[in-house]
Prior knowledge:
Blueprint: H1 9-15, E1 18-21, E2 24-27, E3 33-43, E4 100-110, E5 114-119, E6 125-131, E7 136-137, E8 148-151, E9 154-156, E10 161-164, E11 179-185, E12 188-197, E13 202-209, E14 217-224, E15 231-233, E16 236-242, E17 248-250, E18 255-260, E19 263-267, E20 271-272, E21 275-276, E22 287-292, E23 300-304, E24 309-315, E25 321-326, H2 331-339, E26 348-354, E27 363-365, E28 370-381, H3 384-387, H4 392-406, H5 409-422, E29 429-432, H6 437-445, H7 464-471, H8 477-480, H9 491-504, H10 508-520, H11 524-537, H12 541-553, H13 557-570, H14 575-587, H15 591-600, H16 603-606, H17 609-621, H18 625-631, H19 645-662, H20 668-677
Antiparallel strand pairs: 1-2, 3-4, 4-5, 5-6, 6-7, 8-9, 10-16, 11-12, 11-29, 12-13, 13-14, 14-28, 15-27, 16-26, 17-23, 18-19, 18-22, 20-21, 22-25, 23-24, 24-28, 25-26
Helix pairs in contact: 9-10, 10-11, 11-12, 12-13, 14-15, 14-17, 17-18, 17-19, 18-19
Amino acid sequence: MITIRCTSLAALLLSAWCVLGVDGPVMLADQTSITAGFRTLPAAPIGPPNPWPQFRFQIPDRPVRLSDDLKGEDRAGVFANAAVPPLPYLLQDNYTRQRRIERLPTVQVENAALRAVFYPTLGGRMISLYDKRDRRELLFDNPVVQFANLAIRNAWFSGGVEWNGPLYGHSLLTCSPVFAGMVRTPRGPLLRLYEFDRALETTWQVDLFLPSGDDRLWVHVKAVNPGPRDLDFYWWTNIAVPLARKTRVLSPLDYAISHDFAGNARLAFPVFDGFDGSYPFGYPYFKSVFFRKPGSRKPWSICVDAEGRGLSHVSTPTLFGRKLFTWGGGRGGKRWMDFLSEEGKGDYIEIQGGVAPTQLQTRPLKAGASIEWTECLSPLAIDAKAAHDPDYAAACEAAGRAVDERVPAAALQEIDAFLTSQAAEPVQRLLSRGAGWGWLHETRSRRRISPGLAFEPREGEEEKPWSELLTRGTFSAETLGKSPRSFNVSAGWTDAIRESAAAHGATWLHHLHLGVARLEAGAMEESREHFKSSLALKANSPAFRNLALLDERDGQLDAAQSAYKRAWTLCGNDANLAVEICGFFMHHRRYDAFAAFVESLPAPVAEHERIVLMTAQIALEQGEYPTVRRLLQREYCTIREGELSLSELWFASYIKEAEARTGRPLSPDEQRRLMEDFPPPRVIDFRMK
């Protein structure tokens, strides 16, 4: 490292706080700080988890389709079914759209150049990366926290940088607390975000390092498979950035792959469907584009504005996948962005990096092995004319030179080696606490997962029964007096429940948990016997409900209805179960039973939006078309990404009404004209095509 020698007064002042290294200027006067605090903003309450487990067999299959022109690496690790079961996690679908001012816990990493803000209680999301020198936000910093139905467990919110793994889709922990702690290193402190993943029983950590004076945030990710079996591992770092008319995304490629609801296929890029796809504002529909550059040693992508300023994302080659996601500028896409934020303030796109070519693929993670890589997020500015060169390859070449100046290959390799050496260093100070499942796993397996991950015991209502099982040998009387608020379905936990039952006697709760685990494993009859044994020891709502699911699956609809009735009488008017029972009645066209059940419900439960929506669907079947439209004049907060039930119901009410009036089916042209004449209210229009 060489000190700058200066002759002018300005240069002498500059030399007092600058030195020159191989990778650019570094400030000496400032120090990096890592602090815990709060951010005050409008936020929707997420509500308690849905206590009724959603089983694998309940989830509709989502077959993965690939075009014939995808070969080799583009097919490696492709999963056959994109449906991801949430168990052992419970759904998070009890949020609302009634936002209130909240103080949300934060952790902040800051030096003289950058300030990064994280939400440790919401998956460790990095919500803001602020360039203090240029006085601009580099990420889409959502002014609110509004949940919507986009993740494996339902709840998700937009904005910032999301850490997505180890299963396909938005992380199981994206709206849950994770651990955040400070690690001291020879070069200054780093922030470690980490948690134990219950689905695969793995761990992940994200180490965030902002050296003193550096305007590059270094991100080191490590995942560990401590178990005895090989796994299919998934990870994508999703970076939300602001969207404007001249926003452009650049990433080098040999070819592109398109992903939408039809699957994966080769895509002519950047120009297709009559527009330049490197400008996300111009998309009339939602789209995911994967940039394929096999063999790249330093994968990167950037997002720049009209002036050529923006954000760069660079990584070591393990994270070689690159993607652009846009909601599109159509009516539905714009509605989704505003739905997730405030009106007119929700426009964003995402640039993403992953461990596979596309998001329908995984890579192997051997038993006892780990995988790790380093990423760099930093402000970037290039000549506006070069950034917006109509020749995409020329624009990428200019951007590549700027990326090489900002993040030289030697600097990336050196910092990767350093952060790898620090990945097992212990956390010195916890700033925010996650769940107790990591500690429970280490206790049950009698093995520490990693010296760098400090898991702590936690006696919350979800963890307490399982702590009792391990420390006392069985469930306490207090636990046996309550309905469960968590489940475990892994082989290790199933063995622990069986051992407890053998040593201390099986209770109704032992049988219930064994039934849940065996049902998730596909052992239907064995699970049925456990639920019956649970009920023989104590009448309980979860066992009746699970028997109803089994009876329905077997086509025994009267038995299922009877089991649901008994579950309802014991559940304490739980709205989640009411929605499920209404869904059973509607699906099997038991409309009289539906009406009688809804009539019996307390008003707050009967007004649940999913029950209102089902009421509208039945009204359509019964020819009550004005009623359908009246019930659709409201927001529905748990509408699923890609779900068109609201707009389809709206159009169907007009089409069926016209057909009833004319006494004949409408032609496709007549239907199209009717849909143009009577568009759905914006609050229910989520069409993205």
